[in-house]
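Think of the structure tokens as a kind of shorthand, similar to the way a musician reads notation: each symbol stands for something richer, in this case the local conformation of the backbone. In the example below we present two proteins back to back. Begin with the first one, reading the sequence and then the tokens, and try to describe in your own words what changes along the chain.
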Amino acid sequence: MTHWKITGLIATLVIILSIPAYMLKEKYFPRPPAPRYVATFAGSKKCMDCHRAEYDKWQNSHHDRAMDVANNETVLGNFNNVPVEFHGVTTRFYRKGDKFFVHTQGPDGKMGEFEITHTFGWYPLQQYLVPFPGGRLQCLPITWDVKEKKWYHLYPETSIDPKDWLYWTNAGQNWNGMCAECHSTNLKKNYDIKSDAYQTTWSEIDVSCEACHGPGSRHVEWAELPDMARPQTADYELVVKAKGMNSREQVELCAPCHSRRAILGDYTHAEPDLLDSMLPSLLTAELYFADGQILEEVYVYGSFTQSKMYRRNVRCSDCHDVHSVKKVKEGNALCLQCHRASIYDAKAHHFHKGKGEKGEPIKSADGKVLFDVGSGAECVQCHMPERPYMVIDYRADHSFRIPRPDLSIKLGTPNACNRCHVDKTDQWSDEYITKWYGPGRRAHYGMIIDEGRKRSPDAHEILIKLAVDPLYPVIVRSTALSLLAAYPGKETSRAYELALMDDEALIRRTAVDHLNVTDPKRQTAILTSMLYDPVKAVRIEAARRMTEIAAPRLDDVQKLVFQYSLEEYQKSMEYSADFAFGRYNLANLYVALKQPQKAVESYQAAIKIDNLFYPAKVNLAMMYNQMGQNDKAETLLREVVTSHPEMYEVQYSLGLLLAEEKKYAEAANYLKQAAKGLPNRARVHYNLGLLLQHLRQDSDAETSLLKAQELEPDNLDYLYALADFYLKRNKLQQARSIAEEMVARHPTQRIGRDMLNIIEKNLETRSN
């Protein structure tokens, strides 16, 4: 849901639905069910008597220990008056009776004493939560290493400034918004945007039975009836069925927690589609390598849905016991449930040391052992390479990919071979792969994603092919669609048009986000049709996009649907208003709804939450400029270009603003940087040329104006500017040549003929 722009793109698909008002009322404004049919959370103790085996497996599992009240049983860290030093600050952990305390840097970097009230996590690390005003619980950055039994810092290489979003008392380490929903059952965040406070609640502090099975009161009532009195009922009155679940249903049951995503509201277990409650992240450069391997912590779903396993209906429970969360088998036996041992558990396949032989431990540059690897004969060593997160927590890539050192050479992506053979090159690994398995390498979508990320001119066609090909994973196709936004045109619009009719909600939503047509009537018709989409993430995005249309013509029914979906969107953003992106999206909405004061306040709130969130600064600067407060706009834009010099669009905006303020020399410097970083943006070169002309830097001005005209040879403004430039410098032959081109390219426009007449008169005067 992170939209870093006020306006976007949309394309063409005219599907105008007409739904009777009575049907609309039933669909969008349903009557609430009678209270006796609404299941409530009964608690895991109610499950224990009938499901003892499952309950016993669950106890002391990672889910059971996901969060707890701090006490002698749950706290694993050493609180025996232990001092530790990180980044020049000495922190001390100690106890007072049955309570646990830490003396460390707090808000604004000031030292203080803080009580620890809750534990968070169990293995390989345990974090600790400290209560703060406004119902907040904050995660300490100093964490207990359970395996090594020592304290360590989550940011060992960096001292986090107390003003930084990531500082432990700020929003980046806030439990309520960042962590809570996946560590407790029936979590209700209850963030109040007006008071900027939480009243977060849960039914059970850990991840218990109903976190997966949904509220169980109806099931309990059914189970407590005598055997012969129990009615035949679907799924034993469970909200989430316990048996007969297909692989996709089970994977999507786990996805609300085991995925990188944006949340659309509290999870209720009753959502028909995954995208009714969340929006999965795409394969962005910030989260994934170009070939889809995990880069940042993405929590499995995004990688697993890329895998051949997922396409072959493998599910989480094929490898993990759903109650203990442990693997159902150890070692290669886990994979040999499906894969033939004689082929895959043989040296002829893996070419590595045999069973029982250990590989060399992985070491850092200074010789420190990072982790031990098993034999190269272990399937997971090659097909599920791990990366460390939170310093010591190694997470496996669940895309189950074949090692591709050839892609490492081409794309700079990691490969499993060099994860162990750290003293060898990618070329060395590729030579062995070729020797063992032959020279053939299948084409990989990572090559296309990489070209799209680079905005290569050659990527347009192959991105379209990838986006529309149903044989590729949905997350890959959606990513290709998002990258197509950099290539506007008829072919791109056609691809988006097809995507709007796709069975997959993620693809439809991505298409709605990026589509663009120039005709407002047609755009209205397209977006109106998408307001009727059954999936929340799609229809609220359509509603958001409709706010960009100045005066959409809707009938009474369509107005109701639009208003309902827009309210859904606004509520989703208010739910996430404790994040900078939530306030930012609300601000953009207020801009579209012509509520400038609310927009300014929301942009300011986003910056207060995260002072480094540059999209809010840029958009707020634009608003200040429109309001005549250029001093404030300039301050914000300077902050952004200082922290993000690669943001050439912002360099361009700052240059234009400074030129408006008549700070011409400095403005030219920023426009030069923008022109260098945006070499194909004709308008940047045009404005730079005009400014250099004013500064009497004629040679550079001519170069810039010629570049603009070269990029857009039909643009009348650019042709006129160039002709005028030559005319004022008495270069009449060059001026006439450009003026003749103006007339040829725009025969109906008088300005070209007028310019040519002026030049001809000047030539005549000169000849006389």
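Once you have a description of the first chain, move to the second and do the same.
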Amino acid sequence: MTTPILELLAPAKNAYFGIEAINHGADAVYIGGPAFGARANAGNSIADIERLAAHARRYRAKVFVTLNTILRDDELDEARRLVWQFYEAGADALIVQDMGLLELDLPPIQLHASTQTDIRTLEKARFLQDVGFSQIVLARELTLKEIAKIDEGLRVAPPSPSVPLPEGEGRNAVPATLEFFVHGALCVAYSGQCYISHAHTGRSANRGECSQACRLPYTLEDEAGRIVAHDKHLLSMKDNDQSANLRALIEAGIRSFKIEGRLKDLSYVKNITAHYRTLLDEFLEASPGYRRASSGRCTYPFTPRPEKTFNRGATDYFVNERKPDIGAFDTPKFSGELIGEVSRIGPDWFEVAASAPLHNGDGLSYYDSHRELAGLRINRADGARLFPNEMPEDIAVGTALYRNRDQEFERALEKKSAERRIGLHMQLGETPDGFALTLTDEDGIIASAALPHAHEVSKNAERAFGGLRENLGKLGNTIFDAKEISLDLSQPWFLPASAVNGLRRDAIAALEAARAAACERLPRRIAVSPAPTYPENELSYLGNVLNSAARAFYEKHGVSVIAEAYETNTEKGEVSLMITRHCLRYSYNLCPKEVKGIRPDPMTLVNGKEKLTLRFDCKKCEMHVIGLRKSALVLRR
């Protein structure tokens, strides 16, 4: 039985962010290429991906490239060329949504199913495993019980490969790795099942251009037109935070822990990656039955604090079943930590009874008289008296203040904020014509270097041995850390520091080369034969089929009726523009399952002249946001 491997997967807006994520403890990073990523504003060149992959290999970390939009027919050839370039640049896996890609001539790169593929059931997960996906991102809305059911189902009689494999390769011997988002922004809709952006602006979330209509303010009206909630951000969720649930998620079968945030800033990436690295390392130290996915141990000159970087409040969403307080209805912005109340006001200052010291440059926020989040920057902090960059007119005694920028914390993250070192055993021994240094790293990789040098006995044994250990252990400009230094010498030989330093450098270079040579590409999972049958025989626009290759894929797997993707603008009437497990009836104590006598009648969301109908599927515990697509003349691009 193989030892379970736990992977921390961090976002990379660009190569530099990805390198820092790895330095702060990520076992893998995911990054967009030049096109076709679900974050259109986070694209990167092939050269950037190659540079990131080279750094990742030093720690046996991985680079996953996102190509997770749906594609038009005229984009398929470009997508195929890009995948080959990703592979040649050293990428370890491709994250995809469009099944048409599986019909193309791709390199033997590992395939991961994007969150956009909307994996909520065992049947869907098993199908994706059987057609060749090695790692699948489960829907964020799943509970621990639902995750465990999928994990258990995938482990029952894993499929055999369609062709014989080289002995010991075993690409299909284990089930697909289950990946789950543990931190960051939450899409209110099931991923891949949201069309409101395309309907209203022509910018498709399935093509990387979401306009984030879910963060807008809405008024909620009941079936009689009565106002239930006025001007609230009713489709805006708090941010995901599974810090307290890592053990439970591991026990349920999750093996890859994904941090959202390819558009977030660098301090977020450093802080959140370090936070989950610390938590996972604590688990691994107490659980010898598991191992981490990459090499090296991290140390930090700061204490990771998730609440310090951008968030909309924290929720663990549905992991521990449905809860009432999952929405960020007051604001979609970062309000920060509650720090105190205004106690006194002057002409260009105010005083605050704060729970923690405030500093020059700190950012504060508060809710103004219209209940809108407003902000200010502290120019000068004189104890409890604060002089802002601009004195707000509507701040009053008793106003609650939040700190959404801790200048001291941010400055710590602007500097070098992590050391990641691979443990070494260093062994210095004699040879007939000199000395040899053998290095064995924590992964069991061995390298050595020789130094021709006369055997000259030292006059001071203690000083000789101490000097050798000191000079051998000087690894400060490398990625290694000497955990043990053995001197297998028959006598206390004299070696000048320059000679020892040269020998150490040669051995380190040899070890780096050996590590690079030992780094293997992730194997591609082989699709089972005969071709597995898709769980449904009909696909509506919710199947997101935009090209002929995707159509051919689903036909090959038994789907007889295939509608075109919503992005083709062929749906003329009202449809579900968003399907979500979040339910506004539940949020406002109007759930028929919770309150007797209430019916699940439709409700309405109003934003200016825009009206959206809410329909409730109580059997599935889902809310559908229903609407029309705006003029096709506006939407064609």
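Compare your description with these statements about the second chain. Residues 538-568 form one domain.
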